[in-house]
Amino acid sequence: xRTGAAEAVFAAGKTPDQVVRALTELxxxxxxxxxxxxxxxxxxxxxxxxxFDGVTVAETLAVVGDFPEPSLGTVGVVCAGTSDLPVAxxxxxxxxxxxxxxxxxxxxxxxxxxxxxxxxxxxxxFSVLVVVAGMxxxxxxxxxxxxxxxxxxxxxxxxxxASFGGLSALLTMLNSCAPGITTVNIDNGFGAxxxxxxxxxxxxxxKD
Amino acid sequence: xRTGAAEAVFAAGKTPDQVVRALTELxxxxxxxxxxxxxxxxxxxxxxxxxFDGVTVAETLAVVGDFPEPSLGTVGVVCAGTSDLPVAxxxxxxxxxxxxxxxxxxxxxxxxxxxxxxxxxxxxxFSVLVVVAGMxxxxxxxxxxxxxxxxxxxxxxxxxxASFGGLSALLTMLNSCAPGITTVNIDNGFGAxxxxxxxxxxxxxxKD
Amino acid sequence: xRTGAAEAVFAAGKTPDQVVRALTELxxxxxxxxxxxxxxxxxxxxxxxxxFDGVTVAETLAVVGDFPEPSLGTVGVVCAGTSDLPVAxxxxxxxxxxxxxxxxxxxxxxxxxxxxxxxxxxxxxFSVLVVVAGMxxxxxxxxxxxxxxxxxxxxxxxxxxASFGGLSALLTMLNSCAPGITTVNIDNGFGAxxxxxxxxxxxxxxKD
Amino acid sequence: xRTGAAEAVFAAGKTPDQVVRALTELxxxxxxxxxxxxxxxxxxxxxxxxxFDGVTVAETLAVVGDFPEPSLGTVGVVCAGTSDLPVAxxxxxxxxxxxxxxxxxxxxxxxxxxxxxxxxxxxxxFSVLVVVAGMxxxxxxxxxxxxxxxxxxxxxxxxxxASFGGLSALLTMLNSCAPGITTVNIDNGFGAxxxxxxxxxxxxxxKD
Amino acid sequence: xRTGAAEAVFAAGKTPDQVVRALTELxxxxxxxxxxxxxxxxxxxxxxxxxFDGVTVAETLAVVGDFPEPSLGTVGVVCAGTSDLPVAxxxxxxxxxxxxxxxxxxxxxxxxxxxxxxxxxxxxxFSVLVVVAGMxxxxxxxxxxxxxxxxxxxxxxxxxxASFGGLSALLTMLNSCAPGITTVNIDNGFGAxxxxxxxxxxxxxxKD
Amino acid sequence: xRTGAAEAVFAAGKTPDQVVRALTELxxxxxxxxxxxxxxxxxxxxxxxxxFDGVTVAETLAVVGDFPEPSLGTVGVVCAGTSDLPVAxxxxxxxxxxxxxxxxxxxxxxxxxxxxxxxxxxxxxFSVLVVVAGMxxxxxxxxxxxxxxxxxxxxxxxxxxASFGGLSALLTMLNSCAPGITTVNIDNGFGAxxxxxxxxxxxxxxKD
Amino acid sequence: xRTGAAEAVFAAGKTPDQVVRALTELxxxxxxxxxxxxxxxxxxxxxxxxxFDGVTVAETLAVVGDFPEPSLGTVGVVCAGTSDLPVAxxxxxxxxxxxxxxxxxxxxxxxxxxxxxxxxxxxxxFSVLVVVAGMxxxxxxxxxxxxxxxxxxxxxxxxxxASFGGLSALLTMLNSCAPGITTVNIDNGFGAxxxxxxxxxxxxxxKD
Amino acid sequence: xRTGAAEAVFAAGKTPDQVVRALTELxxxxxxxxxxxxxxxxxxxxxxxxxFDGVTVAETLAVVGDFPEPSLGTVGVVCAGTSDLPVAxxxxxxxxxxxxxxxxxxxxxxxxxxxxxxxxxxxxxFSVLVVVAGMxxxxxxxxxxxxxxxxxxxxxxxxxxASFGGLSALLTMLNSCAPGITTVNIDNGFGAxxxxxxxxxxxxxxKD
Lengths: 208, 208, 208, 208, 208, 208, 208, 208
Ligand SMILES: Nc1ncnc2c1ncn2[C@@H]1O[C@H](COP(=O)(O)O)[C@@H](O)[C@H]1O
Ligand SMILES: Nc1ncnc2c1ncn2[C@@H]1O[C@H](COP(=O)(O)O)[C@@H](O)[C@H]1O
Ligand SMILES: Nc1ncnc2c1ncn2[C@@H]1O[C@H](COP(=O)(O)O)[C@@H](O)[C@H]1O
Ligand SMILES: Nc1ncnc2c1ncn2[C@@H]1O[C@H](COP(=O)(O)O)[C@@H](O)[C@H]1O
Ligand SMILES: [Mg+2]
Ligand SMILES: [Mg+2]
Ligand SMILES: [Mg+2]
Ligand SMILES: [Mg+2]
Ligand SMILES: [Mg+2]
Ligand SMILES: [Mg+2]
Ligand SMILES: [Mg+2]
Ligand SMILES: [Mg+2]
Fold this sequence. Notes:
Eight copies of one chain form a homooctamer.
Chain A: E1 8-10, H1 16-29, E2 35-38, H2 42-51, E3 55-58, E4 61-64, E5 74-79, H3 85-97, E6 101-105, H4 113-117, H5 120-124, E7 128-133, H6 139-144, E8 151-155, H7 167-174, E9 181-183, H8 189-200
Parallel strand pairs in A: 1-2, 5-6, 5-7, 7-8, 8-9
Antiparallel strand pairs in A: 2-4, 3-4
The structure holds adenosine monophosphate (AMP) (4 copies) and magnesium ion (MG) (8 copies).
């Protein structure tokens, strides 16, 4: 396998059957690793739960197999509220499946800055930050000003009208005036976790 | 005159001559009021300074005639840095020409949140806020969380790449999660001042 | 609470259960204030009506709890026809929940200008105007020429083809040649009412 | 020749030499008809004036040869102000070159509706209306409500920020709620005159 | 009534009930004129057929009441194939309801130019042409080269991929190199008929 | 070298010096092949002419070295008029430099269909067609209906307003209803010639 | 028939009945040729299977009638994975219906370059390549560097977020730095096969 | 200072004077650190060279002061060719100013994959990769498949036509099928270096 870590099936546009078959293949190839299915419809989640033991489900995500012991650094997944939770959870559970200790800080938004600042210490305690935001997507800029750790910004498609399916949040993050933010595709919690893995491997003494 | 207040010539795409003639008309019609020319090229500013006495110039803006005594409430114009200053100045001087006491708070950005919070008290002291920002345009969201005063957001065309001439900042402001922000066109400091005037007239006992 | 006034749940993308729970929290925190849920599906409205007494429903909006006595200035909500009514109602009922006396003027469009001018006097009688329009979105420009009161323009997603989900109306309002118009996001009647509240508080003697 | 009427050279992106040569060809082929060059740079206008007698110039337009006697119906070209004049003039002089009696009504905008209504009678007196507008481009909608004559809407690239080079005005006109408006390309005064010609030929007894 | 002719209800986004009620109002106000409902869902068409006698249905369009005797000029509605027929029919039946004699030429596309040229004579026989096209939308340019009659181009949302919901056809028509074409909104067969009416009234001796 | 044929320097954004140096490298590596520089400014063309013998210039294109004997099939480059000639010439001279016999058919547009049909026989005589068009870009659709040869469509940035720098022509070509058209980037005459080369090599008995 | 080869019905937006009727017409006109229906819903596929004998189905494509003996060159259809298979199959079966020997190479992506290079020899063995890719759409660029055969790039709408329905892959292919790639519309496997046919006919000794 | 490292002046839109003054401030505040000015015009570079000793210039970038000893990990900056060099150099010199050992690999493109693979070993030797690409922007996807190190993708505005100022490359990178790529704004070599710094600090034993 290319990256030496848990892999995922992108379930959107696949039948439950196709997803179960793809997960089976991943499990057979690497029984020691969890396999993920992201963007599952309810019927797909049912099929996965029926087909495997030990399935963890979070919104539209299914993780098959036990999470590994965390052996790399820590990841903080930050978002503003309930609407962004599915994407935040995709980042959170993928990170855990990739053996990173990961915690969630939800309900901190830029329009209530004092509530965010109350978490300043804690935000600084993580090795890598994944900051998830929809609508105007300003949260990563503010968080990046509070810490010098790597910060991966994840725009979400949450919003309406001139959010244009996440375009607004994406542009905000790309244009951030906070130096050193990087960005992934809209709703791509999975990719953010993969990026965090690439970064935390830098500190892995056992690697290479 | 429609709005009972100082008017402006939009100089972009006009010859210096056309601008001077338009300013003359405004001055003749209302000698007691200043007349503004916005978006002037250097040659245009020279022509205006040559044609009139008592011209105030700020970047690309010219104000002809004395500023009136401030008789309405106070306006705070807020921006993050030097690049946004021309638009902030357009809002500032237009507001003053419209008889509003107006002050500038520059150099407060969302990526240095503590410097912004140091101004929290002062931000709350204005009747109306005009918040100017380019690039990711997140400043109005944060400021709106610190005060319940009317807040007019002005996106600027400052930026490069995916800022797409101010589109990024505009979308950010329209999608702000802070309740009750309103927005004007990109670089429209003049319109923001006019909007502030409409609001402050609400408190004008002598009106109607 | 941040703004000292009625708050709302954005129901789009939430389960009826999540909406009822969120409304319950708002009601518990502030029993003296109404709580709103906007953008509700029919099933969601049913759940809200089943869960609470005294629910007011207007299209996709639910208001839980009694409206407060109007204690601030008056708001006029203006729109062109039936298609824009859901957004106009969102502005109307939110304004009332925020203690502003609010009235609706429907069925005045720019292509029948004499019908609009028949309301000129009445339009001038409000402290703040919220003007709602879809398709070409020209109504705010015309109304703004008839009054010097604050005018909040609300583009709607009503239209087809080159309206691009409200983009056409949004651009019209941002580019308005009438000085001092401000704009909110597409379909954001809720935000327009919040903006009106910020403005009318300027005249509130009891504030601060 | 295809259309049996005066033709034009589109000078943008051509050298003065190329324009003069193209005009010469048109003049040789049809000495009895004027030939037009639109979108000329100053150097190009100089070359045209040097090369021919009897050149009429209006902004960036040059007409070579005498205008024919008007023999078809009347055209009213309407616009809001000085910025839109170059496009309005392109429509005006092309119409005259195509043998239509044509008049200009400038300085009527939607934000000053009473000044527009003062022209209501006169607007109704034309056979065909060409309505030119930039920025929010709302003028055609209002004028179309005042008359049942054919109305050709011409968006202009006048504006800044979210006008996006005339896109805003174009979308406004395409989405007009006034029934029966048709639209041409941004800044296409020439095409509007050609469209008027097609319409007025319907009333030409001598045709076919 | 504004335009002195048959009116229409835009049924998209309305309940069957609302459509029937709106049609009833139109019929009561003008019993001598047909009333149209455009963009009807099947359930809406059923409701209209149940509520009135003498309903003509074409795809998603319903016409209530007898068509008037044609008393103005002739309209030719031209399109390339079955996919564009709903929009072509909207133009066709609206034109007939507006008292214009109207005929349909379907199945002539630009990629089979000889089949189109076989209709050249007939295309020239109409007073006004309405040319409907989706995908690349090139048909109006070719037809406009064959006749000097007024030509109203109607882009449709037929297509996939880079047609972007009709944007491709719309841009093609706006950029047509054939002089004097005018364009209406995507899928707006109704508006094209209204525009034809404005043009054909020019030849109506009994008017004004 | 990758493709075994004449190569080109893309001069836009390079200094004359950089272009001359790049051409020198190409010539040294393959003295038997011509080397091209496309998108040259005048100063760049001067530098190239000064630096080499035997330079062929067409608008912004320079060819250094003798053209090879045509040894593959024939290419027909088709366009509507003078504005598209620079791109057509880029395709023409690149094709010749790549050893294909190539001819130009200019001045055939879709709005004058009979002039195009007069060339029908000749269009069918080429092995491959490169059809260049700006503005509405409809020419490839019509030509593709007249022949079953490979047809490469080249959109150009010629146009104004809603042509959006060639986007309109590009979308037209991608959405063509004529089966089997393929498209290259806006203004990419060079790429069209390269694509023709790939096709004509299919018939090259001496290849591989 | 225009192109002398198998034709297809575009089933999207047609009723099963309309599709069956259209296929019947094609079969009657040319009983010796297969007829295709692309973009069929399940109900449509059922209707086609019920109406005809010998129907081949691949995802949303139906082929009615026997495939002809391959008599032209070979086509290689290349794609990265399961998600792009429906479009790849549309190209594959259409190519076969058009009498070209066609093979599929699936599961080669740019992020696993060594797996792709393992196929280098085989990729070079085809006369024409059709390369299908969604998301970032980079596969054609890499494949084009490995062979000098004609390469038709087909972007797919597979992706999410900033893929914008295939726009990302389309732009990638149009901007490819590999010389001589041509592109068709998003998801247009049918058109790619038609283009391949035009190219392979060049080598057909029996033609013309 | 926020980030504890060399800072930069963004010179675009500033006068040479403003840039020199801003650099002076940075130097005074932190004499031990180099100060950068990015996006300088020639006149600006002259002014900087005149004002300071020890200025390093690379295209439009100026570095004032000595580069620090590299004390963090290594950065590899990768790009395809001369056109992307200015952005690659911005990343390179900023990285060096931020105390990271940094090397450039230029002239490896996706259309010549074997030349890229010849560098496979070397690509794997860096701690962090910054991959710069314009036009189709596919390079990061391919490189990411060859290494599991953090990879920061930098789209450039190099290109023409449908590259839309770097949009094409940006979308490609956001939609990359290679897991764990992150992206910065178009042309933002400075930001990529800042992001690399955040990552390499993870391995810095002396930090915190
Ligand atoms: N939610 C997600 N977002 C982005 N990429 C994903 C996601 N889930 C899975 N993937 C990627 O998609 C690949 C599987 O795609 P597929 O073969 O279509 O199931 C995985 O190896 C991941 O690289
Ligand atoms: N298909 C249509 N396309 C565009 N406008 C229409 C259409 N059908 C009706 N209309 C217009 O919409 C108006 C009625 O809108 P409404 O009051 O929402 O039913 C009519 O008077 C027409 O001007
Ligand atoms: N006009 C053009 N359009 C597209 N690609 C071109 C053009 N001219 C040159 N090229 C390509 O650009 C490459 C040279 O790019 P460069 O190394 O930047 O000069 C050539 O090998 C061609 O593949
Ligand atoms: N090339 C660049 N791209 C993005 N941001 C930059 C660049 N150069 C400088 N900056 C940022 O811009 C800030 C300076 O902006 P200013 O105060 O306008 O000169 C620096 O602190 C950096 O964060
Ligand atoms: Mg947010
Ligand atoms: Mg900012
Ligand atoms: Mg409206
Ligand atoms: Mg206007
Ligand atoms: Mg068509
Ligand atoms: Mg053309
Ligand atoms: Mg792919
Ligand atoms: Mg590249």
